[in-house]
Amino acid sequence: MITLAVETSCDETSLALYSDSGEVCKEITLSQALVHHSFGGVVPELSAREHTRNILPLLDELLRTSPVDLKKVDFVSFTLTPGLILSLVVGVAFAKAISYALGKPLVPVHHLEGHIYSVFLEKPVDYPFLALIVSGGHTDLYLVEGFSRYTFLGGTLDDAVGESYDKVATMMGLGYPGGPVIDRLAKEGQPVYNFPRPMLKENTLNMSFSGLKTAVRQVIEKGSYRKEDVARSFQDAIMDVLEEKTLLASRFTGIRRVVIVGGVSANSELRRRFGLLQDKGLLEVYIPRPRLSTDNALMIAYAGMERFKKGVVAPEDINPEPNIPL
Ligand code: KG4
Ligand code: ZN
Q1: Domain enclosing residue 203, as ranges
Q2: Is the pLDDT of residue 162 over 90?
Q3: Do 37 and 166 have their domain in common?
């Protein structure tokens, strides 16, 4: 069985062809990072326009470089929610048009479910496991007991971690997206600032990052600082919180297996830290390769395949929503 998958929830236009045998596994992604770079974040209207401009040329490119043609597609998977509504609309309308033209079903996918299953594209993980989702819009911990069996354990009460990276980068004039550049700068910095680790010692799986952002702003506004040191100190604070809350979730549930997904899971320090926890035998850690950490249609294809096998098919009048919970 082969699916064509469509992902346009934020600033990546991504299409994939994927078969459940794994034989067909081809993805093409166009990042809009340069378009939004000087704005410090994704501009929704520009994002929707870019998706509209690029999605058909991207399909042409995918088909040109892939061993199967569109007629072989059994169903179309697409991201339904959450995301920027204008951006989602482009992908949903596109997926509907293709499904109508082919006479093949449409399968809606939750973007966060896609992120969780990005790990499975490399190797399936045994249930139950914990999922730490760290992206531009989400910082959440879930207990996953089976496909589509998710229990929310806790998450950020304010800013998401990726959003914090992006805001701190903007404060230092580093442009959007902030994660990769702070990741790079932090390697050259010293932890000279003792930034707050909000809610670190509280016996809850909730988190908060807006106080940390304010503390960083205060240092930056004083005017004399090394970007590398701010990046390092900020990143250390973030990682301390993510590490501690994941360990706490593991203690609460008795589960050591954890998948870490979403754009921030591309971070090199996160990978190093959680690798150490695994070496100590405290956690069993699964992180997809960096290419699959950030938004991509292959993860939507994988989740779409599982959903289709369970009989999930979208009605013709399905409409995207900015924020349906997982
Ligand atoms: O999952 P994603 O591609 O899109 C959303 O669903 O939000 O995540 C994007 C976020 C951005 O905030 C970006 O700055 C962050 O992931 N990010 C990183 C790294 N690469 C991307 N954050 C920290 N370190 C990185 N290496
Ligand atoms: Zn995402």
Answers
A1: 124-287
A2: yes
A3: no
Q: Does residue 142 sit in the same domain as residue 276?
A: yes
Beta bridge partners of 79: 109
Query: Is the same domain home to 59 and 142?
Result: no
> Binding residue per annotation — 137?
yes
Taking only the tens place, the pLDDT of each residue in 174-210 is 999 999 999 999 999 999 999 999 899 999 999 999 9
Number of residues in the chain: 326
Give the separation between CA 248 and CA 246, rounded to whole angstroms: 5
User: Is there an atom of ligand 1 within 6 Å of 140 CB?
Assistant: no
What number of other Cβ atoms are within 10 A of residue 221's Cβ?
A: 9
With the most atoms of ligand 1 within 8 angstroms of its CB, the residue from 135, 167, 176, 295 to mutate is 135
Same-domain pairing of 276 and 304: no
Residue 67: the pLDDT is 85
Distance CA 306, CA 300 (A): 10
**Is 183 marked as binding a ligand?**
yes
**CA angle at 298 for the pair 262 and 40, rounded to the nearest 5°:** 40
Is 319 among the domain residues? Answer: no
**What interface predicted TM-score (ipTM) does this complex get?**
0.99
Apex CA 119: angle with CA 242 and CA 212, to 5°? 20
Q: What is the pLDDT of residues 21-66, one digit of tens each?
A: 989 999 999 999 999 998 989 999 999 999 999 999 999 999 999 9
Total domains present in the chain: 2
Does residue 136 share a domain with residue 281?
yes
Question: Residues 41, 176: contact at Cβ < 8 Å?
Answer: yes
